[in-house]
Design brief:
The protein is 45% helix and 15% strand. By secondary structure, the protein is an alpha/beta fold. It is globular and about 75 Å long. The protein has 4 domains: 74 residues, no CATH class; 146 residues, Leucine Dehydrogenase, chain A, domain 1 (Rossmann fold, 3-Layer(aba) Sandwich), CATH 3.40.50; 162 residues, NAD(P)-binding Rossmann-like Domain (Rossmann fold, 3-Layer(aba) Sandwich); 38 residues. Strand 11, helix 10 and strand 12 form a beta-alpha-beta unit. The structure holds glutamic acid. The site of glutamic acid (GLU) has 11 residues, from strand 3 and helix 12.
Length: 472
Amino acid sequence: MASQIEYKFFEAVEKSFDKAAKFTNLDPGVLEQIKQCNSVYRMFFPVKIGDKIEVIKAYRVQHSHHKSPCKGGIRFSLSVNLDEVMALAALMTYKCAIVNVPFGGAKGGITIDPKKYTPYELEKITRRYTSELIKKNFIGPGIDVPAPDYGTGEREMAWILDTYMSMRPGEVDAMGCVTGKPVSQGGVRGRKEATGLGVFYGIREVCNMEDIMTKLNLQTGIEGKTVVVQGLGNVGYHAAKFFREGGAKVIALAEFEGAITHPEGLNEEEVFQHRKKTGSILDFPGATNIVKSTEALELQCDILIPAALENVINGENAPRIKAQIIGEAANGPLTPDADEIFIKRGILVVPDMYLNAGGVTVSYFEWLKNLSHVRYGRMEKRFTENMNSHILGQIEDLTGKKVSAKEKQFIMHGADEVDLVYSGLEETMTAATREIMDCWNKNPEIPDMRTAAYVVAISKVGTAYSELGIFP
Ligand code: GLU
């Protein structure tokens, strides 16, 4: 059994990068340039909280400028530090490359416990952070575009937007300075559930691959598969929802205060409401409590979805994991030691930088919407409906048969914004899965799916750098 080694997060990303780099034929200098974080901005700023002045520590890291703008979330957490922000920024570069989203990677964070502040205080902190970014030219629709991450959501994005717009009056594309905004503030429908939905599409595609399922001794398809989800935040909640709706059984849900399990499956919304009411996930009617939350990771299941924070599965607990597929909905939930153990045990790890790319994919759609200043579907919805109605009328006339009202509604329907966003996301996740699997199949020396995903990502970033003419 491997002993548990403490990795710095950025070091772990570098380790995965090096493991993959040897399967590319890129110049060592190009590889070195890809690996480094290009710009690192650490800031301290004062904010008056009550009658005290608090000095707040925050970061923004731009990992790669091979494409513009840079893109990545902002997290509010006490565990935010430079190493973590650098690692997450690097993952963003690879993530965007894998799903063909034309951005460089970035990440930001503020080292605070958001639960300790009132909404008013959080607004002051967020607005001040935004003005620090503006001062150093670290934000803008063509420069660097933040988004939600752990501890932040639509509300914080709206504050960022408002601060930016008030300091850049008249900038016509200002709306595109941040994504994950409320729909009323230039957000796009479908962004909130995008990461969880992308996790579902990605795992569903993997489960539809017969050869992979045969190797894992599993039936093809999602239907009836048992799933354990760790984390009932935005990503975990929506992943659980889409798995349940897709016919899987979510047999356990875990949060930091404990976990619950039910052999017939749990309904995430009911559990969410129970937790809201009682303050804990435990004691959900009909379910069995698991007081030590981390034990839920070790339950017998087909698919394990860690959707909380990094390093939750490591050299110490990896030998006890019983799932056949681990889908990394969080960023960096497995350490490199855990990876090695799962390779040996033949467990399939579906890597974060691809699997949780649904968020940034739909952020890209939001950014495009903001730059085009028009809602998706606005121009063509009615035209499609009129055309479909006409075609249907002709078919009915020619055949003499009538289509039922329900079928008629389905056939005639012109795409709304959310239809287009979901279909764009489904296509993106499906294509990315195939690209990674193809790369893996073509080179059997590649030890795991994570390395295959890195090979795909590094090759694309390397090509982009070369095409920029930086490395003639
Ligand atoms: N924070 C999310 C991530 O880690 C989304 C980033 C974005 O939309 O820019 O992928």
